[in-house]
Each structure stands twice: as C-alpha cells, then as structure tokens.
Amino acid sequence: MRILVIGAGGVGSAFIPTALRRSFFEHIVVADHDVGRAEAAVVRAADPRVSAARVDAFMEPLLQLREQLLGPLVRPKVREQQAGGTERAEAGQ
After folding, report:
1. From 37, 44, 75, 80, which residue has the greatest number of CB atoms within 10 Å?
2. pLDDT digits over 5-58, tens only?
3. Residue 38, burial from CB neighbour count under 10 angstroms (0-12, 13-18, 19+)
4. CA-to-CA distance for 13 and 8, rounded, in angstroms?
C-alpha cells in the first residue's frame, strides 16, 4: 500500500512516526504547499520508505479528486451592496 499524506503540519507529521512502526505500507509521500516542511518531515522519519512532494490544494487534479470523493465544492453566499442601498445574495464562484 502507498500512502499520500497531504499536509506536513502537526497531524501529518505525527502520522509518519506512527505509521513507521507498522509494516502494512510500502511507501509514504508527504506533500505540502511548502516543500521544505515536507522535506523536514522526511528527514525526521529517516526511512527510505518516506519521500516529500509539493502540492497545492488548488491544483486541478486535486480539485477533481476532491469532487469525485466529496461532491462539488460549495462556496458561501456573498452579499453585494447594490446601487440604491439594497443587498443581493449570490453564490460565489
């Protein structure tokens, strides 16, 4: 099994040492928008089964995967002030 950990912050970094105590996976990729954070997690792991990558949550393939798994992204309604002082609500794009 190969694992992709998106985010090398507190939760992502805590997952890695826990997973390394197990033998159920063959490789973990730690991905973060700041590749330096992902690389630091790899250095701390000191295991050849862990590598780093850069990922941006707004990369088109990730947005498509998110939509397949969770459905369309719904953005909050935005209130606009119209001429004349009335408000109108629109779905953000």
Report:
1. 37
2. 988 999 988 999 999 999 899 999 998 989 999 999 999 999 999 999 888 766
3. buried
4. 5
Residue 55 pLDDT: 82
Does residue 92 have a pLDDT over 60? no
Tokens of 47: 């295991």
Write phi, then psi, for 17 (nearest 5 degrees). -65, -30
Which structure tokens are listed for 33? Answer: 């928008």
Strand partners, 78: 90
The residues, ordered by sequence, that sit 6+ positions from 34 with a Cβ below 8 Å of its Cβ are 8, 54
